[in-house]
User: Which sequence fits this backbone?
């Protein structure tokens, strides 16, 4: 009887170790940056910024999935921390209302991504310049989903640190 119990414990231990290795391998595979799509998510984000700087609201709308919420964490000495949200239409209206006489540039400093063929997160650090003057810096976090043969933004949150 003891022999049977010891045998069961050993078998259970072996199965548990084998199962945990499978789960561990699966988790590792999920975190690999690999996309076999014609364009990778980083290029999709770069294309978004090209259209952003061109103030091309029609093209920008094509990058963002309908219904996507955009959020910003604003951090400044004078205003403290504020989380603000907008929908795609509000965001595009803000871009369209920037006068042509004023320029803006979001300089991407570093881009990192992880994901697979269907879902990806892309983070970028940046500095923002309005009419040639530095205004703030922060991080963008894009969630992209491969839909209709292209990467679409399905979530966008940024931080904005004001001096």
Assistant:
């Amino acid at each position: 009887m003891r022999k049977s119990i010891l045998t069961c414990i050993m078998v259970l231990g072996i199965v548990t170790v084998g199962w945990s290795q499978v789960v561990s391998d699966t988790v590792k595979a999920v975190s690999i940056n690999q996309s076999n799509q014609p364009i990778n998510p980083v290029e999709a984000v770069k294309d978004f910024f090209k259209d952003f700087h061109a103030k091309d609201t029609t093209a920008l709308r094509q990058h963002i999935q309908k219904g996507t919420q955009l959020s910003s964490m604003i951090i400044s000495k004078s205003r403290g921390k504020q989380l603000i949200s907008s929908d795609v239409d509000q965001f595009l209206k803000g871009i369209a209302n920037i006068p042509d006489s004023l320029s803006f540039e979001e300089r991407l400093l570093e881009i990192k991504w992880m994901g697979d063929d269907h879902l990806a997160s892309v983070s970028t650090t940046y500095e923002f310049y309005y009419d040639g003057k530095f205004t703030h810096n922060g991080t963008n976090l894009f969630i992209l989903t491969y839909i209709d043969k292209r990467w679409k933004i399905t979530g966008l949150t940024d931080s904005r640190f004001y001096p």
Observations:
- The first helix runs from residue 2 to 30.
- The radius of gyration is 23 Å.
- The helical segments are 2-30, 41-53, 57-63, 88-96.
- Residues 1-32 have pLDDT under 50 and may be disordered.
